[in-house]
Structure formats: structure tokens, C-alpha cells
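User: Can you help me understand a structure? I only have the sequence.
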Amino acid sequence: MSSILSVAWNSWDRIVSDATFTILDSFGWHVHPISELTRGLPAVQSPTPLITSLIFYATVVTLGRAQLVRQPRINRDPQLLKTFMVLHNVFLITLSAYMCFGCISEARRHNYSVWGNKYNPGESQLARYIYIFYISKIYEFVDTFIMLVKGNIKQVSFLHVYHHATISFIWWMITRVAPGGDAYFSAALNSWVHVCMYSYYLLAIIIGKDSERRKTYLWWGRYLTQMQMFQFMLNLCQALYCSKFSEYPRFLSNILLVYMGTLLALFGHFYYSKHIAKSHRAHEKQM
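Assistant: Let's start by predicting it. Here is the structure, written out as C-alpha cells:
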């Protein structure tokens, strides 16, 4: 049985790898040669583990949303789910803080400037932090699975799924080709934003559905979204700068430039719908 599975996986790996590298090469995104610092780490050399995870993620999201449309779930969270959610958020707060300060510490140790740092194959510890950051993006698929189990179909939006599905692939390319240099900035910044974001989620779980307590302790939700948008703006500026003045792989900076533009547009629309348009509607009702 194990030999059959091994043969099947090897065949699947050849198909996925050949297709992925062919498509990337057609865009001029040459993800080779692979960095010696990450060559032997799981889910780096071949794109197949990540692509398989993305197919599984897309399948669960599609089937989960379809099920919730047919039969909406009563929004009751069993204690076991709440306990898991608390542990999940505590873990990601801790991991995000570890990655943030680890990347900053390594950048300081190697005398990095804010932007414009080339990838150095000798910086093995920074490569490890970048690798952990990449793997964390796959683990964060659990965010979506929790939303589906809770029946929060509105939270499983195009923005949410697009961001979770695409960011992992971008960081696979970074981890494979240049796990260091200018990548430290995005990893550290995003990790800090996630410390704040998962702290907010954790607080929301602990507080529960009491509207008065939520107003008292979760008033900073809109500022969290503003922080996320400010992050994307900084990354956009970084991509513009690095695409012109950095020795970091140019194609990765160009990808970052386009990607951050899409996230700014999508998060901007989300922010307007949730905080600005909603306030206008509430004001009009009072008149």
C-alpha cells in the first residue's frame, strides 16, 4: 500500500512541479537555483506540498460555503471550539512575536538598512525565520476553517480567501530563492500586525457577545484595519524602492508591488463598507 502511495505521490509531484515551473518561467519568475539554506527543508524544493495544500484549502472553502448557503448554522460555539480558538490565537500571537523580533534582530546584526538589502547566502538564521514565516502562512488556513465551523460565511469573503491563498505561494517563492535580504522587512512588519490582529481575536473570544463590553474593549477594530492598510502602503513603497535600487531579486519586488496594490484596493473597499458606509447609514436612520 505504501509503495502504491509513494508511486502516486511521485507522479503527482512530477506533474505539479513541471506545470508550476513552466508557468512561473513563462512570467519570467525564475525560482531557481534554490537557496542552499532552504534546500533541504520540507515544502520548499518542490511546489507540490504547497499546491496540494492550496487545492485542499480551496475544496474545503468551496464545499463549506455551499453547505452554509444551503443550511445556515446556528451561531453557537461549543466549549471545545472556544478552547481551540483560544489556543490557536495564543499560539499565533507567540509565533508572530517570535518571527517579528527574530527578523529585526538578524537585520540589526547584519547592519541592514530599512530597504535595499541584497540576499546573502551566509545569513542562515534569518533564512530560518523566513522559512518559519512561510510555513505559518499555510497554518493560517486554520483561520478560515474556524470561520466555516462557526458558520460565519460573511467572514469567508473573497478578500479573506484571496489573501490566505496567494500569500503562501509568494512566500514559497521567496523562501526558495532568496530567504533573507529585503524579505526581512515584510516578514517582520506582517508578523507585528499579526501580533495585534490575533490579540484582537483572542480578546473577542474572551469577551464574548456582550455588546457593552465589546464597545469598551474592542473599540480599536477600525484602527486595526487601518494598521493593515498602512502595512500594505509601506510594502508598496518598499517594492517601488527595491525594484529600482535594491540588489534583491527584481521579480520578487515586482510581484510585491502588484500584490500590495491589490490588497490595498480590497482592504480599502472592506474598510469603506464596514466603517464609513455603515456609519453613514446609521446617521441617516437617526435623522
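Now, to help you interpret it: The chain has a mean pLDDT of 92. The longest helix spans residues 250-286. Let me know which part you'd like to focus on.
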